[in-house]
């Protein structure tokens, strides 16, 4: 078996979502034995060596079954945008618990698709470390912060390892000025997830999910060296074309989380 292929199968939740599909394709092509799952049907051709099982993250027994024999769980499932609390609660909090219980039983590592929205209310004028305070910008970001904390608890209490990938904006290419800092290429995401699974020891580590964006940098000092990852792509070639592509919303432009910060914003005296 090539040394960039895990020895055990890998479970991927959220396989039918935008990033799940990217990883199913790229890791499947690299020869990984993938167990794909999502509540929605998988819309693409199944990669060689992959299976797909439709399941709700709310079904803990289904997740236990799916994870049987897996060495890692790539948790990309759940709600991926800002929504009312009641819509986030089931998939992102209870579902996450089911993922961690399955990981505990299998002694599997979790790669958790966390988000920049877990720290979205940090100001863009700052540069923050992975150890700076979580500052979620809504119920979605709060669920990602909770996910990181749950992962830490499972590490301290049960020895379940996690890599929390605080994904910026993972798209085919950056489309506005904010993404000159937050852009993560699909190829950098794939390499990051690969290292997060294959690295020898990760404990409970945080990695900023952004490409090598030098024109605008908000994030530094994470656990990338521990997992052996460095981004190779960059938003920099888009700098000239995107630097003025900004909104006229002062809340959106002030904070790292951008438009998510402005959703339902009601601070009477304006930005802090
Ligand atoms: C995220 O966490 C979202 O899932 C995605 O839809 C983007 O909005 C991204 O963050 C971003 O901040 O650009």
Summarize the SSE layout with pairings:
Elements: E1 10-13, H1 18-29, E2 34-38, E3 51-54, H2 60-67, E4 72-75, H3 85-106, E5 109-115, E6 128-129, H4 139-158, E7 162-167, E8 169-170, H5 179-182, E9 183-184, H6 186-198, E10 204-209, E11 219-220, H7 224-227, H8 239-242, H9 250-254, H10 259-262
Parallel strand pairs: 1-2, 1-4, 2-3, 4-5, 5-7, 6-11, 7-10, 8-9
The structure holds D-galactaro-1,5-lactone (15L).
D-galactaro-1,5-lactone binds near residues 80, 115, 117, 167 and 182.
Structure description:
With 272 residues, the chain is α/β, with parallel strands linked by helices. The protein has a single domain, classed as NAD(P)-binding Rossmann-like Domain (Rossmann fold), CATH 3.40.50.720. The chain is 35% helix and 16% strand. It contains ten helices and eleven strands. It has helices at residues 18-29, 60-67, 85-106, 139-158, 179-182, 186-198, 224-227, 239-242, 250-254, 259-262; strands spanning 10-13, 34-38, 51-54, 72-75, 109-115, 128-129, 162-167, 169-170, 183-184, 204-209, 219-220. A seven-stranded parallel β-sheet has the order 3-2-1-4-5-7-10, sandwiched between helices. Helix 1 (18-29) crosses helix 6 and helix 2 (60-67) runs parallel beside helix 3 (85-106). The longest helix has 22 residues, at 85-106. The radius of gyration is 18 Å and the shape is globular. Bound molecules: D-galactaro-1,5-lactone. D-galactaro-1,5-lactone (15L) binds at residues 80-81, 115-117, 167, 169, 182.
